[in-house]
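User: tokens in, sequence out, please.
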């Protein structure tokens, strides 16, 4: 209300100012302005889609959304602009733009394109003006506002744009104006078209140009703004008139005004004509705009004819205006005084109520202002409680003036009106009634509803009528009384009470704050102690008691919890409570403000700062005053903390606290003989060697030109040279060539050719010899001939092995030729593939009946000679053999006029390059690359002249020329061999002894010495930091500087490219940079620019930077609202809002707020729990300004004697213990009074006693008085025995006992098991023996033989108490199917069963079911066929049951046959007759015809018809007779390969082949070409899931007597038969493992194995997989075979201790730490933590089985660290893994390998420490910074620490010991710091979230990115799919930024960690190279580097141990390091062959 009155007074003053200002010009009248109000012109108050009108106090604003249409002004405004715009204009906008938008604020357009537009974007923070330029520029020119877009501030913005032809001005709020002159070619073109389109908040046609936000003001001025159209206190921005303004018309302003008035008088568009009384509708800034125009310019819109006034008149007016302003200031002071008086009066009036006074007329009340007529001429009026009447006759008299007066009569029934002097009256209108019964009441004008009359009382209609029944309610309705039950109100209580006599139930209890109170009960609120409440009718009403609090006499009283009133015992300041006397810095107050609490009042003072002495002081936010931290030396300023070298590298200066301190380094003498002084360093170091003016790296081996035969080594700065070792030679006549260091064996010269030593070559003189050069001598011998594959080969070139012909009887025959036997004319021989076969001539059957035999003939012949043959027009004699006339490869025979020809057979050529001689290929030469070569011929390969080829027995073998070994690393090519008389380096050749530059390193110089290249560095002696070096130059010059890729001359100054705030100068090859000086800022709160200089672009206030114009919190005690204005801060006090909470706190502005509490004079923050100030056993809580207190809840105690300490509320357990009358404190330990050997401990009233553990326990100690037994000797059976003594106890002489450290172990003799029931122990012996044999309960004497009852086929014998039984010897049967008959011992051939009847093998019979079918049993298979009847006799009869008729008797052709005799009638072998005795008892002949097999598969040409002795035709090849020479041969008879025919008894017999069963799967079986049955390449052994190759043989695993062979997939097994065994006396049969039959050996012979004696047949376990047995003095061992294992996805195979074969166990997890350090948790999360303390890396948080601590150390760069030490706690053992592979166990250094049973085993493999434990915990440490921790799957979900909780969920790995998830990695890491124990560091640095790349700079990060890209290169790509490289890449960049100088080591750490993860995933990477993390292995000792080598090497000590046993004890699959190659074993740090190992006896080398 006060502000409203003040606002009214200000408007009154402004109005007065206008009244005083207008008479200056003497032009009173309305205010006509040349301004278009766009919001009014658009009629924005009407309903427009997307536009909302909003009201605020004193303002109207419009919310415009993008969905609004284009807001385009009507057409008349376009015409007005076209007519009145004269080269300049202004646009004024007040608005607020939405965040993240881009839009047009205002635009002028033609129908086709925009002309002018103002575009604002809060997306990219730009403000742009597009305009049409008049200088011929096409399109729109643009101007960007040079500052930040004001609409991006998210606040209201005042913007004015002034446009002239050659000037553009921007006015923004109260900032300095931006004025830009426009060039003539780019002048603003403001000649608008007649149809110009004026649009607000968009550009027509562009949808994305629409504005989103709020607008208060939008105006167009017809003139440019000379100043901003609003008022600013400190800115006077009068713009001087542009030199181009009004150039066309000197009276531009006046003419423009005149045109505006003329246009206004004619067209009258709706221009903004604002009368003075309407200014209050505009915002304050717009009003100030109007005020300024009215005062300075006068009212716009001068009348016609007024010219512009002169300058003198203007000055006179200005003086008058200044005088008026002074008067106005005086008037304003008066108004202020009056306003103060008015405010006090208003405060008094606010307590009053306004009541309108009424009048009483004739007993009736009349409302104030009402008038009525008492008669025709008098009218009365009620005014302020008084009635005045007057004559009203004039009101209706015609006096020339019409008065329309309305009045009412007093009775209210008529209303009269005076019109034109006549009075007109009409009745008052009555309301409509909704009742049926009406009545008229006297005095009333209108009827009313009829009332009711009850008991003499009248009640109007609708009135309530009282009744005697209080529970009923009656009303009058249309004259009737209507009653109804009283309605009860709704109750809020749960259990209302209905009392007798009451109509409604009522509440007698209240529920408040979860408690129940009785009606009328008063009680305090538990939540707010200042609230007192009362229960009334179920409702609780409360009132505050704050007013009753006593007045405190302090400024900042504090309220204690649970108290209502504040006290001055403490201070509450800014919602915080401070104790009395506490000195503090208030939050946000800055370091200069210090406050103190004293007696409840806070007193603050601000520290005053002395003037600073430097140009650029540093403002530390933690310090009050700026400090100088720069140093000046010789005019150069250095930053605080910087260091530099002023003169030479040995001098260094540092700026510290503004002071310069310089030191000079004194170099100590180096500890080496050849140190190197590096460029830029002060002292020489021993990291490399400077030798002969060359620099060699540490460890480099090299030779020098002056000592070519010596090799030198640079080791830690010292060069040591020794003679180069030479290889051993195996010749005695070695020599040393000139210029070489080592001797060599001489070469050989033979036939003008030189052959190197050891070369093998064919003899150039004799092709059948092969020669070898041995130590200069040629040794030749005849070439070994291959064995011929025929029996009569022809002689070849060197060997007689040519099977393409025959040599027989001293003659040679061509292949395929038949020739007579040399001595037997009746035999004829044939030559087939080098084989000679001679057969008796077979005589053909003759057709004549009288053949004769001529002398010297072998066969008879007919008298008529056989016919000759005519073939191809030539005649051949009978039986003549000849070659085909046209094909010499075919051999023909003439037989009785017919010629038969067949191709000559060819042998297979057993060579690789045979030649083709007539008809056949032969190995008599070689066909190579289309050219034939003779055997023994040699030649050079055309494609490679260094390759020599030789033809040997038809095969060509090409070999490269044998070159002597080149014993150098960089040989040069010489003809075919590499030579060491020069060097090849980087693809170039260099002569021997030359020195040359390294192409890849300009500073590198290399020397070639006998094929070896040694490179070193050139030593540079320059002493400048930035020398200029040409690309081909090594050492730079100091006359110029090379800096950031540019060359500068000496003395040249350049800006620093990396730091724009400094300048650099080239001085003698060194670039020195200094910071630019800063100019002083002319404002009170400047901000710091990027260079650290103060500027006034914003404000730095209370430690925070603000932009110009921004509203900021703070001010004095943050109780003022401040604004930043050009580096200054203007503040105003804020007002406090009202609060409703009972205990509000006071903020720092003394405002009452409910976000805290003031209780008992102390401030509490919201949610704070605090003890009650007066009652310590109450706890109070502050909640939103209210305080609730409650008694402390005490926890239950579990002790017997709790004690409540003084001043405490709850009892506690002291935990003291009472034991045997004494009291002990909890946690103490003591010795039991009753037992000095027991130790007791007291813990929480419980005493626990147990005997002290003894370091040594034994079973037979010597008695003593000590607590622990004395185990030096043993007491056994009353006798004391010394340690390791072996003795026989007196109680049992068969036992042997041993004393071992106080314990006696006795062993009984191992006696062999006796098979008899009653063995006999002879006197003097310990083991019993059998004298008889027991079998099936029966005794047999020694040597007795008998037959087994259970199996009479076995014969048994009693020998030495043991029964030996043997099966019978049975004859071998020819059949495959065999059976053993019951009662028989040997098998027989299995017969056939047909129709339930058995038939013997090869028998035949007639089928009983069908007598016309005959059957035969062949090899156990029954074959039946239909019988074809035959009746050779005349007297046949039919016998019932027979198929064919039989002869009446057994007589045929006069011959009598007896029963069973058979014959062939007519000598036809197909007809069979047999004499049989029929059922009638008579003999009859049964005859039938044999059935022949079908030959459907046989080609017709291959069918041979039967001979005289055979029945059926057979299938055979043509021209192949089954002669005696071919008996047993086989051939394919048909196209079906399953039919084979065999020559047997001079007849071909054809059979169908049967396929054998195969063991391999069907998909692996295949049928070879021309084969019948499928075969396999392998056999599968059932039950063992094992595969064996074809041809392999093996012994069955269960029976050593069974031997099997794999034959193309079919397994053939044979059983070995053992002969009966008869052992000599003292021997017994022994079954030896691996053998089938028993052998006789000495009985009872024991075995000695690894120092232990084992009895015969005793069995023992060597390890989990191997068991051994003593067999008669020999040890036989057997290793278990493990079946294949398949595990689930979350399991893996692992070896369980005590078992041989692996089992599926839960998959273990691995956590790694590497680098700076980075941690990859068990669940795979990568995190970075840089704390330099000791932390819990991993531990068993459930069972406490183990704990691992990691100690990190500072890495040398701020904020980062690396792993320094690892400590493993397992049981009572502590293991420390230190740097450089040092290991401590229980704080003592140990040597590796180290074993502590049963907990740990530690070993070192190459550069890796491996720790293994008995619980499966494994630790890998590389001795530097890389660590792996593996835990078995049984600890899943049980771990904690930096490695996480191992639950396969990486999102919760940042769980702290409290159980909460940490939001940051540094907070998580610090929570696991080890704070107790000896292992924790007393001074350590906690981890922070740092970014080392940010600290190291751009160049360091760029270099790190470049080097770490190798992780994404091709060498690591095979692993990317299983181990994503991104986390490791980030860790690599992180490390390289933090490492500083030694980036190679850090890079290799990360790469090795990634490669290790790849190995675990099964990907082995070969990623190292000579330039990338190379590992040097001692090659001279035989080692090679292996990326994945076995961690447990094979040595001479374990070479005999099974490999599976070694692997089961290994740490992990493989590790990188130096290994022995395959086939070698490790011994004494050398790799040797196993056979060279020394013999190991009991572990000691011989």
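Assistant: Sequence out:
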């Amino acid at each position: 209300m006060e502000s409203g009155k003040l606002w009214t007074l200000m408007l009154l003053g402004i109005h007065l100012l206008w009244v005083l200002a207008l008479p200056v010009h003497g032009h009173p009248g309305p205010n006509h302005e040349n301004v278009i109000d766009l919001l009014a012109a658009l009629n924005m108050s009407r309903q427009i889609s997307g536009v909302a009108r909003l009201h605020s106090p004193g303002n109207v604003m419009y919310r415009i959304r993008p969905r609004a249409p284009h807001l385009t002004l009507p057409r008349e405004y376009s015409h007005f602009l076209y007519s009145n715009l004269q080269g300049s204009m202004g646009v004024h906008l007040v608005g607020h733009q939405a965040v993240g938008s881009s839009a047009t604020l205002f635009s002028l357009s033609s129908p086709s394109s925009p002309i002018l537009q103002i575009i604002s974007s809060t997306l990219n923070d730009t403000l742009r003006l597009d305009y049409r330029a008049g200088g011929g520029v096409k399109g729109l020119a643009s101007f960007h506002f040079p500052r930040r877009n004001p609409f991006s501030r998210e606040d209201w913005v005042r913007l004015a744009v002034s446009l002239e032809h050659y000037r553009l001005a921007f006015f923004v709020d109260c900032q300095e104006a931006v004025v830009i002159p426009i060039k003539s070619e780019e002048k603003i073109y403001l000649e608008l078209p007649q149809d110009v389109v004026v649009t607000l908040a968009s550009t027509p046609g562009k949808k994305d140009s629409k504005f989103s936000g709020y607008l208060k003001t939008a105006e167009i001025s017809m003139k440019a703004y000379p100043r901003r159209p609003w008022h600013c206190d400190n800115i006077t921005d009068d713009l001087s008139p542009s030199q181009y303004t009004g150039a066309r018309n000197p009276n531009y302003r006046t003419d423009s005004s005149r045109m505006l008035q003329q246009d206004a008088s004619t067209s009258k568009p709706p221009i903004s004509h604002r009368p003075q009384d309407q200014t209050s509708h505009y915002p304050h800034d717009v009003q100030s705009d109007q005020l300024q125009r009215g005062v300075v310019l006068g009212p716009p819109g001068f009348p016609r004819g007024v010219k512009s006034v002169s300058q003198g008149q203007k000055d006179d007016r200005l003086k008058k205006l200044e005088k008026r302003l002074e008067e106005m200031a005086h008037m304003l002071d008066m108004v202020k005084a009056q306003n103060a008086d008015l405010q006090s009066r208003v405060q008094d009036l606010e307590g009053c109520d306004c009541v309108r006074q009424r009048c009483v007329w004739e007993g009736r009340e009349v409302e104030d202002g009402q008038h009525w007529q008492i008669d025709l001429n008098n009218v009365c009026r009620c005014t302020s409680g008084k009635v005045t009447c007057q004559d009203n006759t004039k009101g209706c008299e015609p006096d020339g003036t019409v008065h329309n007066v309305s009045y009412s009569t007093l009775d209210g029934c008529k209303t009269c009106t005076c019109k034109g002097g006549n009075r007109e009256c009409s009745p008052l209108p009555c309301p409509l009634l909704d009742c049926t019964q009406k009545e008229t009441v006297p005095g009333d004008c209108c009827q009313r509803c009829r009332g009711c009359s009850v008991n003499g009382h009248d009640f109007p209609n609708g009135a309530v009528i009282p009744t005697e029944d209080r529970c009923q309610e009656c009303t009058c309705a249309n004259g009737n009384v209507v009653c109804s039950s009283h309605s009860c109100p709704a109750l809020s209580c749960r259990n209302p009470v209905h009392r007798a006599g009451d109509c409604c139930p009522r509440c007698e209890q209240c529920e408040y704050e979860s408690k129940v109170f009785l009606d009328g009960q008063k009680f305090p609120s538990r939540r707010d102690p200042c609230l007192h409440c009362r229960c009334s009718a179920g409702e609780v009403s409360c009132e505050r008691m704050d007013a009753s609090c006593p007045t405190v006499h302090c400024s900042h009283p504090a309220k204690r919890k649970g108290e209502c009133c504040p006290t001055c015992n403490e201070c509450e300041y800014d919602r915080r409570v401070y104790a009395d006397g506490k000195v503090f810095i208030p939050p946000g107050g800055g370091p200069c403000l210090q406050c103190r609490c004293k007696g409840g009042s806070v007193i603050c003072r601000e520290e005053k700062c002395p003037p600073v002495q430097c140009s650029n002081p540093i403002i530390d936010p933690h310090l009050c005053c700026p400090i100088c931290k720069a140093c000046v030396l010789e005019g150069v300023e250095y930053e605080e903390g910087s260091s530099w070298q002023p003169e030479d590298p040995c001098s260094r200066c540092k700026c510290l606290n503004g002071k310069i301190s310089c030191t000079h380094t004194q170099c100590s003498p180096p500890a080496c003989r050849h140190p190197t002084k590096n460029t830029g360093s002060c002292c020489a170091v021993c990291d490399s060697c400077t030798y002969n003016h060359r620099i060699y790296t540490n460890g480099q081996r090299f030779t020098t030109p002056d000592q070519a035969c010596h090799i030198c080594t640079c080791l830690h700065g010292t060069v040591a040279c020794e003679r180069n070792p030479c290889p051993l030679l195996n010749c005695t006549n070695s020599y040393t060539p000139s210029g070489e260091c080592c001797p060599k064996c001489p070469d050989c010269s033979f036939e003008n050719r030189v052959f190197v030593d050891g070369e093998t070559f064919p003899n150039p003189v004799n092709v059948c010899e092969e020669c070898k050069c041995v130590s200069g001598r040629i040794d030749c011998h005849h070439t070994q001939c291959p064995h011929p594959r025929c029996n009569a080969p022809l002689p070849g070139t060197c060997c007689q092995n040519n099977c393409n012909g025959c040599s027989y009887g001293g003659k040679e025959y061509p292949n395929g030729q038949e020739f007579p036997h040399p001595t037997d004319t009746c035999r004829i021989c044939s030559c087939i593939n080098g084989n000679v076969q001679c057969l008796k001539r077979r005589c053909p059957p003759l057709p004549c009946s009288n053949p004769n035999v001529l002398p010297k003939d072998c066969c008879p012949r007919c008298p008529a000679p056989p016919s000759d043959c005519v073939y191809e027009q030539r005649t051949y004699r009978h039986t003549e053999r000849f070659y085909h006339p046209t094909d010499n490869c075919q051999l023909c025979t003439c037989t009785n006029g017919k010629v038969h020809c067949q191709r000559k057979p060819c042998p297979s050529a057993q060579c690789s390059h045979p030649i083709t001689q007539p008809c056949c290929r032969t190995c008599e030469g070689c066909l190579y690359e289309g050219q034939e070569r003779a055997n023994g011929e040699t030649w050079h390969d055309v494609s490679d002249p260094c390759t020599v080829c030789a033809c040997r027995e038809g095969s060509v073998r090409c070999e490269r020329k044998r070159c002597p070994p080149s014993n150098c690393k960089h040989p040069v090519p010489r003809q075919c061999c590499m030579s060491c008389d020069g060097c090849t380096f980087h693809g170039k050749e260099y002569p021997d002894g030359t020195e040359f530059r390294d192409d890849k390193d300009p500073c590198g110089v290399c020397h070639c010495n006998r094929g070896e290249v040694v490179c070193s560095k050139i030593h540079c002696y320059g002493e400048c930091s930035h020398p200029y070096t040409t690309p081909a130059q090594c050492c730079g010059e100091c006359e110029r500087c090379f800096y950031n890729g540019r060359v500068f001359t000496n003395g040249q100054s350049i800006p620093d490219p990396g730091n724009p705030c400094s300048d650099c100068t080239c001085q003698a090859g060194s670039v020195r940079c200094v910071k630019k000086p800063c100019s002083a800022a002319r404002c009170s709160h400047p901000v710091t620019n990027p260079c650290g200089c103060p500027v006034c672009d914003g404000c730095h206030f209370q430690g925070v930077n603000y932009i110009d114009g921004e509203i900021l919190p703070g001010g004095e005690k943050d109780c003022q609202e401040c604004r930043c204005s050009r580096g200054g801060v203007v503040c105003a006090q804020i007002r406090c809002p009202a609060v409703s909470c009972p205990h509000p706190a006071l903020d720092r502005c003394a405002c009452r707020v409910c976000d805290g509490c003031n209780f008992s004079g102390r401030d509490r923050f919201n949610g704070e729990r605090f003890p009650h100030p007066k009652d310590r056993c109450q706890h109070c809580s502050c909640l939103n300004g209210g305080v609730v207190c409650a008694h402390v809840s005490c926890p239950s105690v579990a002790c017997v004697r709790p004690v409540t300490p003084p001043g405490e509320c709850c009892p506690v357990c002291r935990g003291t213990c009472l034991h045997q009358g004494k009291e002990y404190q909890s946690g103490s330990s003591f010795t039991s009074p009753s037992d000095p050997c027991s130790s007791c401990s007291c813990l929480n009233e419980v005493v626990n006693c147990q005997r002290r553990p003894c370091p040594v326990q034994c079973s037979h100690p010597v008695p003593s008085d000590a607590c622990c037994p004395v185990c030096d000797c043993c007491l056994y059976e009353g006798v004391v025995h010394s340690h390791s003594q072996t003795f026989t106890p007196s109680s049992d002489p068969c036992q042997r006992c041993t004393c071992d450290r106080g314990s006696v172990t006795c062993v009984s003799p191992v006696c062999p098991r006796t098979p008899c029931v009653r063995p006999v122990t002879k006197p003097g012996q310990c083991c019993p023996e059998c004298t008889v044999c027991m079998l099936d309960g029966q005794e047999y004497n020694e040597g007795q033989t008998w037959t087994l009852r259970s199996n009479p086929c076995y014969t048994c014998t009693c020998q030495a108490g043991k029964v030996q039984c043997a099966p019978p010897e049975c004859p071998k049967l020819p059949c495959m199917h065999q059976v053993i008959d019951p009662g028989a011992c040997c098998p027989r051939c299995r017969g056939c069963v047909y129709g339930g009847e058995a038939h013997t093998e090869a028998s035949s019979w007639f089928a009983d079911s069908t007598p016309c079918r005959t059957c035969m049993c062949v090899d156990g298979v029954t074959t039946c066929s239909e019988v074809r009847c035959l009746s050779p006799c005349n007297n046949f009869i039919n016998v019932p049951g027979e198929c064919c008729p039989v002869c009446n008797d057994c007589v045929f052709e006069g011959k009598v046959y007896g029963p069973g005799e058979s014959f062939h009638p007519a000598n036809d072998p197909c007809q069979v007759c047999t004499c049989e005795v029929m059922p009638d008892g008579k003999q009859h002949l049964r005859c039938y015809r044999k059935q022949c097999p079908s030959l459907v598969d046989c080609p017709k040409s291959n069918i041979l018809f039967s001979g005289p002795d055979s029945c059926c035709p057979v299938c055979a090849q043509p021209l192949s007779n089954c002669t005696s020479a071919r008996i047993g041969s086989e051939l394919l008879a048909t196209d079906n390969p399953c039919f084979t025919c065999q020559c047997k008894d001079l007849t071909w017999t054809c059979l169908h082949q049967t396929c054998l069963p195969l063991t391999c799967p069907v998909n692996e079986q295949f049928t070879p070409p021309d084969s019948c049955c499928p075969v396999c390449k392998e056999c599968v052994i059932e039950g063992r899931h094992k595969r064996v190759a074809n041809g392999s043989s093996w012994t069955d695993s269960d029976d050593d007597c069974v031997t099997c062979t794999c034959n193309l997939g079919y397994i053939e097994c044979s059983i070995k038969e053992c002969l009966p065994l008869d052992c000599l006396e003292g021997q017994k049969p022994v079954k030896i493992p691996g053998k089938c039959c028993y052998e006789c050996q000495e009985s009872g012979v024991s075995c000695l194995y690894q120092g232990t004696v084992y009895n015969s047949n005793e069995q023992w376990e060597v390890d989990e997989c191997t068991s051994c047995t003593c067999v008669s003095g020999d040890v036989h061992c057997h290793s278990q075979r493990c079946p294949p294992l398949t595990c689930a996805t979350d399991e893996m195979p692992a070896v369980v201790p005590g078992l041989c074969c692996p089992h599926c166990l839960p998959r273990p997890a691995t956590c790694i730490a590497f680098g700076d350090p980075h941690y990859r948790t068990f669940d795979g999360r990568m995190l970075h933590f840089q704390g330099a303390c000791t932390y819990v890396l991993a531990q068993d948080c459930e069972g406490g089985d183990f704990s691992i601590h990691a100690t990190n150390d500072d890495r040398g760069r701020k904020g980062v660290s690396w792993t320094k030490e690892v400590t493993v706690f397992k049981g009572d053992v502590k293991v420390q893994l230190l740097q450089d592979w040092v290991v401590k166990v229980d704080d003592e250094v140990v040597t590796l390998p180290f074993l502590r049973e049963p907990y740990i085993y530690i070993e070192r493999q190459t550069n890796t420490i491996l720790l293994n434990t008995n619980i499966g915990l494994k630790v890998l440490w590389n001795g530097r910074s890389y660590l792996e921790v593996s835990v078995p799957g049984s600890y899943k979900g049980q771990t904690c620490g930096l490695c996480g909780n191992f639950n396969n969920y990486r999102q919760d790995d940042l769980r702290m010991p409290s159980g909460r998830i940490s939001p940051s990695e540094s907070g998580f890491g610090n929570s696991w710091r080890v704070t107790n124990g000896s292992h924790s560091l007393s001074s350590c640095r906690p981890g922070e979230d740092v970014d080392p790349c940010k600290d190291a700079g751009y160049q360091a990060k760029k270099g790190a990115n470049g080097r770490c890209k190798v992780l994404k290169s091709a060498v690591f790509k095979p692993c990317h799919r299983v181990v994503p490289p991104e986390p490791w890449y980030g860790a690599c960049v992180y490390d390289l930024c933090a490492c500083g100088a030694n980036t190679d080591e850090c890079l290799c750490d990360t790469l090795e960690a990634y490669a290790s993860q790849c190995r675990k995933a099964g990907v082995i990477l070969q990623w190292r190279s000579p330039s990338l993390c190379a590992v040097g292995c001692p090659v001279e000792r035989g080692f090679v580097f292996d990326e994945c080598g076995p961690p447990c090497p094979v040595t001479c000590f374990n070479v005999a141990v099974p490999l599976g046993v070694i692997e089961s004890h290994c740490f992990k699959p493989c590790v990188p390091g130096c290994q022995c190659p395959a086939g070698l074993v490790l011994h004494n740090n050398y790799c040797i062959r196993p056979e060279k190992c020394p013999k190991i006896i009991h572990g000691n080398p011989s």
